[in-house]
Structure formats: C-alpha cells, structure tokens
Write a structure and sequence with these properties.
13 strands; about 400 residues; single chain; alpha/beta; about 45% helix; three-stranded mixed sheet
C-alpha cells in the first residue's frame, strides 16, 4: 500500500493533541429518550428528535405502507424518472403547512442551502450573512462569486450598515439562521425583514431548528413573528423535529420552478425513497393534529432550563430547547461529556471549529419524549459532575 496519505496520521494526532478529535458514537437501539450507546444505557440528551417522531408508531406504519405501495427506492433523480406522485404530495403538504405558494424537497438541508444560494446569486450580487450562520450556509455562499458581507451576530445595526454599503449590487440576499444551532438563540427576524423591505433586499431564513418547534403547530420562526408572505425563501429540514430526512425550500411557485432547473444539489441527487416521503407526510399531520407533542417539548425545556440555571450552570442565552452548558476550553467540554457519560447521560461536546476555542460546551436538547424521571435524573447527574469539575 502506498504512503501518499501518511500525512493524515500527523493531522489526526494534531487533532488529538488539541482535544479536537472525536470518534463516532454508535447506537444499538432506536433513537429515543433512553438508548444504548457504545454498549452503555444512557439518557439521550443531544439528538435533534425534538418531538419524539423518529421512532413513532405512526411514522413506522406510514413507511411500511409506502414500501408495499411504491417499493423502496426512487431509482432516479427527480428531473429524469425519480419524481413520484408521493413526492409531489409531500411538497404540496409542505407549502400548505408553511403557507407559501410552493415547496421543493432536497435530499438534505445542506443540499437545500448550497443549491439555492448558488443558483440565485451571481457575480453582480451581494450576500449579507450573520456571522454565526450554519456551515451549510457558509458553504453555499462560498459556491458563488457574489460579494460577501458578514454582520455581527444578531446585530441589526451591522446589517443596516452592510445594506447601505451594497447599494450598487444587482441583487442582495440577507441570510440568517432562524434558531442558531449552537446557542439556541433566535434571530430578530421581524427587524431583519423591516430592513430588507426598506433597502429592497431578499431574505432567506434557515429554519432547521425552528421547524416543529416555534410558531403555531410548529410552523417555524416566520409564524412565530407573524411574517407570513414577507420572507422570500424559507429553508427548513425534515430530519429534526419531523424525525425523517431531507431539506426543503418554500416560497413562490417561480422559486420552485427555477430551482428545479438550476440547483445542482437538486438536479444531481436521487429522489427520496417513498417510505421516507410517506413518513415525513405523517409527521406533518401529527404536528398539527396532536398538539401534545409540542406542548410536552416546551414544558420539558422550561423545567430543565430552570433547574440548570438555579444550580449555577452557564446556559448562555438560549430561547429554545437547545441548551448549551458552557465549559470553556475544548479539554473541559470533552471531559464534561466523558464524565456525564460515565454517570449515564449522553451529551456531545461541541468544540472548535464549530464554536470559538474558549466557548466550548456540551449541547443539550430536551425532547418531548423525555419523562420527568429522565429530566430529574439528568439534573442530578449534572449537579454531581458540575460540582466535581467546579463548574458550579
């Protein structure tokens, strides 16, 4: 075997020396409130399964029925021979749910962001982005030749300045996360939209962590702020609160038609398996006709946050179920995660480059599936470990 990739050994060792090397944790059970992970039974506290839909009987049944009706795979990209009636029905359901003219489903959220930004923005245009936007947005921006402006996190005065400095651009696109995935804070979308309308710019919001969580029936941040019809591009995910897989873009019919013909991450990707599509449709029905899931999510979130704050943990400024437990340096976050796991709780360390080097944390996501017993045990574990590590 050749040695042309031996440099990888040194690079891996460098990651280990900096406490940045992570191995994949492996589940031996379905995704739920308590799991067996790396051979140990633990409370799961960091999945994106907000509403507990990932293993819900209704989604299981819908997927099984779809396999019997449609087979397993789609067999082709959407443009050639992979679009089935069930794919169209899902997109119609998404558009109705998000109260837009149309929607288009991508294989993943990262594909939706990359494909849409690249397709819409050219060399004569300008993109204005929050400094803490998700990596998939950053990747999409890098695929363009557009002028790039980054404003300080949540700082609408910085956004206004960027809009003033890009008046000569052909088109301008403001992009922001709705809920920021590392800190759980919410974009001031109402003010962003006001500025966009004042300066004639488009707005794109990545609502991956707002879908199923914010707004009436989990319709997301646009509904949360009452901005229906005023946001040009609503990007969301099907793989978090809805317990399935994929990303989507919702907006005008012309946006859907244009992306079908120009978004490379759509054009060159095989369509979703019909069983995934059917399960997603069932999740959309559930979030609207079973409101107890969303209610349980927020009840659990408030209970956990209050207890953690009362104990003295630094949980940042989160406004959502995402709760960062700040640890400081990467080594501390890695050690916190390790000790929590030993005590029976799984919470992944989040370290550089996902966050700043001195702002490492474990990121907790409470779900609707967690029982009060789960939460009380988790709180007790955090108290023991936190005192041992002198975090509280």
């Amino acid at each position: 075997m050749n040695n042309r990739t031996d440099f990888l050994k040194e690079m891996i060792q460098d990651l280990k020396d900096k406490n940045l090397f992570i191995e994949l944790p492996v589940l031996s059970t379905e995704q739920k409130n308590r799991v067996v992970l790396n051979g140990k039974e633990v409370i799961m506290m960091c999945s994106n399964n907000y509403l507990g839909f990932a293993n819900h009987p209704r989604l299981r049944a819908a997927a099984k029925e779809a396999i019997d009706c449609w087979g397993y795979g789609a067999g082709a990209v959407r443009q050639i021979a992979g679009t089935m009636e069930i794919h169209i029905k899902l997109e119609e359901m998404l558009a109705e749910y998000k109260r837009t003219e149309a929607a288009l489903v991508f294989v993943a959220g990262i594909a939706a962001n990359r494909g849409t930004i690249q397709a819409l923005m050219g060399e004569e245009d300008a993109i204005i982005s929050d400094e803490l936007n998700h990596g998939s947005i950053i990747d999409g921006v890098r695929l363009t030749k557009s002028r790039r402006m980054v404003y300080p996190h949540l700082n609408t005065e910085g956004l206004k300045k960027a809009l003033q400095e890009t008046k000569d651009a052909r088109r301008r696109l403001i992009i922001t996360d709705g809920v920021f995935s590392m800190d759980g804070d919410i974009a001031p979308l109402d003010r962003i939209v006001e500025l966009a309308e004042e300066y004639d710019a488009m707005v794109m919001v990545d609502d991956a962590h707002g879908d199923g969580v914010l707004g009436k029936d989990g319709r997301g941040i646009i509904d949360h702020f009452g901005l229906e019809g005023r946001v040009d591009i609503d990007m969301g995910t099907l793989s978090k609160a809805f317990g399935s897989l994929g990303g989507y873009i919702a907006g005008r019919q012309e946006l859907r038609e244009y992306l079908i013909n120009t978004a490379r991450s759509f054009i060159f990707t095989t369509a979703h398996p019909p069983c995934v599509t059917a399960a997603t449709m069932e999740a959309l029905r559930m979030v609207q006709d079973e409101p107890q899931h969303l209610r349980n999510l927020w009840d659990n979130t408030k209970y956990f946050k209050k207890a953690m704050g009362n104990m003295g943990f630094d949980i940042g400024r989160s406004q959502t179920p995402i709760t960062p437990v700040m640890a400081g340096e990467s080594r501390m976050a890695m050690d916190l995660s390790r000790q929590l796991f030993q005590e029976g709780l799984f919470a992944k360390p989040i370290v550089f480059p996902l966050v700043a080097k001195d702002k490492s944390r474990v990121r907790i996501i409470v779900t609707a599936q967690h029982t009060r017993e789960d939460l009380d045990e988790a709180i007790d574990i955090f108290e023991r470990v936190g005192k041992r590590m002198k975090l509280i």
